[in-house]
Amino acid sequence: MIAYIVRRLLYAIPILIGVNLLTFTLFFVVNTPDDMARMQLGIKRVTPEAVQKWKAERGYDKPLVYNEAADGAGKVTRTIFFEKSVKLFALDFGRADDGRDIGHEIKTRMGPSLAIALPVFLLGLFVTVTFALLLAFFRATYLDFWGVVACVALMSISSLFYIIGGQYLVSKVWHLVPISGYAGGLDATRFLILPVVISVAAGIGSSTRWYRTIFLEEIGKDYVRTARAKGLSELTVLFRHVLKNAMIPILTGVVVVIPLLFMGSLLVESFFGIPGLGSYTIDAINAQDFAVVRSMVFIGSVLYIVGLLLTDLSYTLVDPRVRLQ
């Protein structure tokens, strides 16, 4: 087990290097450090001297990946890529182009992101799995048919419709909760209720269909027929046998959500004015702030790799036949 974990962690190093290099390449293909300087200075007629000063203050006056003027290892180390991206492996996120400390911003914004993402994750998983089991229990009936129709209709509607429609109906017309904003402590609840409900509703359709397919596949297997032959009730068969044996594909689908628990939802946080990591990333993309973008991409990659590792380890808990080598 320990050897497997160490091996997987070593595999993650070249993956993270590749992600960093790809992010770096894509970002600087779109715009050069000169373009970034002109955008951050915010004036139309900026002098070349001002551009050079801005680049020198933020370390963008060096070559991108190879410094021919340097000697020895400096040809690689005295570059934008090494100074801006390699330090991420030491969790040194540096400063944003506007001067703010990125590490401090991440710590500050992680709380609001978790406050909305964790309830969405837990509540959404409970609702979709329960609904899928209900459809599987009443399979080939009118309830199953119309449930699938409702799922298809829900997943066919853009999440923007749920956000804008929910804000208009619940906040503007009924005045039940604030339309946007955020507050600390218990006051945050009234700002989070609507985003959580909308996020759960937007994901019910696709997740329920996915889990329903898994449950129906398990229902047709021999061990289910054996359990029924022993006289077990249908509910016992579903919740004690089918659900347990369907945990591996469920866990595989859950791992995709793990990075969102920390990075937040880009659309929801932006539309509802929640100061989380999702809105922080959107603002950085709009401002072409490479320092913030690379940090968020790196964190997302690390979380996704950790999620995959935790998923593999959880397989051994739900299925004793799985052995990690």
Describe what this molecule looks like in 3D.
The protein has about 325 residues and is mostly helical. The protein folds into two domains: about 1-90, no CATH class; about 100-320, MetI-like fold (Orthogonal Bundle). Helices cover about 75% and strands about 0% of the residues. The protein contains 16 helices and no strands. The protein has helices at about 1-30, 35-40, 50-60, 75, 80-85, 100-135, 140-155, 160-175, 190-220, 220-230, 235-245, 245-255, 260-265, 265-270, 275-285, 290-320. It is globular and about 80 Å long. The mean pLDDT is about 85.
The CATH homologous superfamily of the largest domain corresponds to MetI-like
**Structure summary, number of beta strands:** 0
CATH architecture of the largest domain: Orthogonal Bundle
Strand content: under 5%
Estimate percent helicity. over 70%
Reported for the largest beta sheet, the result is: none
Give the integer mean of the pLDDT values: 86
Termini, distance in Å?
7 Å
Q: According to CATH, what is the class of the largest domain? A: Mainly Alpha
Which descriptor suits the 3D outline? globular
Number of helices: 16
What fold name stands as the CATH topology of the largest domain?
MetI-like fold
Rg over CA atoms: 25 Å
Q: Low-confidence stretches at least 5 residues in length (pLDDT < 50)?
A: none
Number of domains: 2
The arrangement of helices and strands along the chain is HHHHHHHHHHHHHHHH
Structural class: mainly alpha
